[in-house]
Amino acid sequence: MNQVLTLMEGQGIKPDVVTFSTIMNAWSSAGFMDKCREIFDDMVGAGIEPDMHAYSILAKGYVRSQQPDKAEALLETMNKSSVPPNIVIFTTIISGWCSATRMDNAMRIYHKMLDSKVSPNVKTFDTLIWGYGEAKQPWKSEEMLQLMEEVGLAPAKSSIQLVADAWRSIGLIKESNRFLSRINDQVVKDDISVERNLGLSFSNVMQAASEQYGSNSVSGGNQMLFREAEFSSVNLWSATRSMFMNRACRFRAKSPIICQKQNLVQLGMYGQIVNSCGVVFLN
């Protein structure tokens, strides 16, 4: 890899931080962290200041090679530079200590992150919860879930599942099921929320049609229209609910928007309403 840099310099091409980071990433992915660090040091020696990506490559590489102490040492280096550590760097180092089941060190990095005015996110807490599970301390995993709520973060389903897995790992199925029931309760709440959003969306479509064509033409003058629309709303609800329940999509229902030149035939609206709108949910 050093030959690449030599060749570039020989051709009058000056390597930059992207060049060095690319070579660092190659050595890191291959597991040669000594070579990766050597390239990093060469970059600094050439007067090129490392960016966040370069530091992330080092941190992740050290964690993969089970050297969380060297990953942690980067924090001091970064604090002395113009690139202070961010949430990704802190969480990466925390994951390294969690993998080594050194939860005392993981929590020390967590508090160091808070002292640096960097706010934890769901990924940070999921990492800590998983770490305590690996350390066979599910009660600590549960404490992390409570701490998560105290700092104003709503636990994700993954967070609750990790606590349930932690209890199950030591054979306490009853405690595990206690958290699995929380996941089921959250799914029910999500169902209700989606149903309300869809009901509101369909109501907005009716209101838009009424405003465009007049209340008489839509409601009073054409009862069949509403019967057709009411029937089709069931199909709309079924199809859209399936979309929302598909976890791979991860869509969130937001305010419906009006799409021009799209018929409402799919909603069962025939007759006069031929250039109205469809309901589109944006992520």
From TrEMBL:
InterPro entries xref list: PPR_rpt (IPR002885), TPR-like_helical_dom_sf (IPR011990)
Entry keyword Membrane: no
Keyword Repeat: yes
Domain of life: Eukaryota
Keywords: Repeat
Classification via Gene3D superfamilies: Tetratricopeptide repeat domain (1.25.40.10)
Per-repeat ranges for PPR: 16-50, 51-85, 86-120, 121-155
PANTHER family: OS01G0228400 PROTEIN
The protein's name: Pentatricopeptide repeat-containing protein
